[in-house]
Amino acid sequence: MRIDPFLMERYQSLYENVVSYNLSESGVSPMRVEELVEGEAGRDALMNAKLGYPWGNGSPQLRANIAKFYPGAKAENITVMNGGSEANYTTFIGLLKKGDRAAIQVPNYMQTWGLGRFFGSGSDTFRLVHDGKRWALDIDSLKKAVTRKTKIVLVTNPNNPTGAVLTQEEMDAVIEAASRVNAWLVVDEIYRGAELGSKKTSPTFWGRYEKLLITSGLSKAFGMPGARIGWVAGPPKKVDKLWAYRDYTTLTPSAMGDFFATIAMEPKRREQTLARTKGIVRKQWPILEQWLKAHEDILTWTPPDAGAIAYVGYRLPIKPSKLFERLREEKSVLINGADHYGMSDKAKYFRVGFGYDPETLAEGLSFVGEFLRSVQKAK
User: pLDDT tens for residues 132-146?
Assistant: First the structure.
């Protein structure tokens, strides 16, 4: 069996450490250990932490802390994974068999599209479309994508790459589509908590549908990608079954990841961590917004609802894949084109991250601007 190349992840792995300006990151500047481990008692606990095998499904305290992020959830509703990617991977291998199909929202992080094709018999897509004001759910494409063969309906909310959050009506439509064919609804909520404009955390799908699995982790909204902690929230019997699949792969989360995540997901500390993330995106969005406005004759954009990512449209005669390559080769800047998110190479969009170093962001954008103007002049 052959698995489809995961283009975005492979390109980032190849180039993110060799370019001068990496604007492809979708999270925020990572937290430091000293921000989590406070005081002499905290440092003593860190120094005395044992590097043995931790609980296979996450320590009881960590699972209890994660559960508090979902109203009414308990520790038995949670199983811990090595990052959000493993949470998605294990969920798809646990739910799909040959003959099953997955309905995948696009544009999106294309891991689950590839998993649907590998573990099932294919992935069908439904779309977010720009209606002139926001990225909105295309209900008609959702209805067409979800058939009697659909075993999983997958949405990422808040969305990657657009940063859009579904309305309550759109959430209801997704649930209705999954319910109509008795499919599992899998919702990747890894950007939940990184809101740009609203003080409130984006609504969760938790508690709205019986056959629901939430995947998430510390990589994006929590600014802790190096902890490699993700999780699945769902019915206890189902999350235990998913844990069983991991007995054949990574066995456990890392000991230090479990240690740090237990601190980060304690409710009071959790809200402090999310406040840090929201502070970063709100402080650094104006850098990107000012640059966008300086190029509004060739660019279009909608501010993200959540996440340190913006999906930018452009009016120039160059395909996203070519734009990506030439920016990297000529300006040493890394971004992601629309083709990395399940859209046609004719869809003229690129994603830029704005959550890391503000000086690098400003300098990298200046080179992107130079390149776009050169393409404009060459028309």
Answer: 999 999 999 999 999
